[in-house]
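Write out this protein's structure.
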Amino acid sequence: MKINTLTAISFFAFFLLFASGNIVFAQEKQEGESDCSVKLQEGETAYEDGSLSSSILLLEECLKSGGFNTEEKVRAYRLLTIIYLYKNQDGKASEYMHSLLKLNPEYRLRPNDPSEFVDLYKQYRIRPYLIVGGAGGANMPILAIGTLYSTDNAANQGIVYRGLLGFQINFNISRPITNKIEIMLNPTFSVMRYRFEGTYFDYSTLLFTETQTRIEAPILFRYNLKDKYNFNIGGLKPYLILGATPNYILGALGNAQRVDIVSEDQSRSVEGKSIKMTDLRNQLTFSAVAGGGIEYKLGLGHLFGQIQYQHAFMNLVSSNNRYLLQNEIAKYGYLDNDYKMGALTFSVGYNYPLYNPKKRKSKIKNVSEEIKIESNN
């Protein structure tokens, strides 16, 4: 029993010694990690006291050692830029401004930023060179009916077309041209659905539902109603879009159901397998696109909601293949009417900007013009 007690006491003492050693080690490590934070404060104090060389030494030492976190690096780059501007060392100032904008391309100018700092900042192109993202949402087809074709008198059939809810997903690739204008490419995969209803020979009702899978490649011009690259402006940012898109049908499937009235109390339903309609469609068509949306800044990118209208220009039905499915025509009595299919789409997505800050090239004055101006004076 004594041996067990001594063993327990020894083990407990060893545990306390080990734990206290780790606590001391952790405290020393924490102090080491915060050393550059202290030096940053000392560098800012030295700058305010007019000791620019001491401030440079403190800040550059920690930048080289990697002791700053991201927020501290931004503060250090900003201060070093200001200091070198005061020392008339424009090259070093530009070097640190470039480092600042690479680390934080959406740096917001502060009220206390010196005018020289603001002027240097404005020499840099801060728009992203590319914006990428994605979105998803719902669509509702809008059909415009042309010439009617039928095995019955089409004028007496009570024909109705209804758009059904579908969906789409798309990628966004955008190139800013100015702070308000962008060119966009939105590769899209969509599923669109509609239903046809009509009465045949006063005793038969046909329901025909078609599902089309498509790929689209809208090319759009986007106009931002606010300067989205003025990072001091927050809140919601509305925009408008206008463009055109090709629409290519990958596949089209139809489902038909014919209901015949046999007597006052009895009816008969005729239906079968899905009908492949792809060959009966003009697979490539074109549409105009118009719409708008609202962005909300979330992180470095933007969360957005968008509504878009597609106006179809071309008939979807292939005139040459209208009578191709003879068995189905005999079974259901259905013939394609000419129609164009646009859509109203709703989508939600996220866009992420890719930055590569560059200093704008300054315009070089013509020497002969300067001489001419001086001679005139």
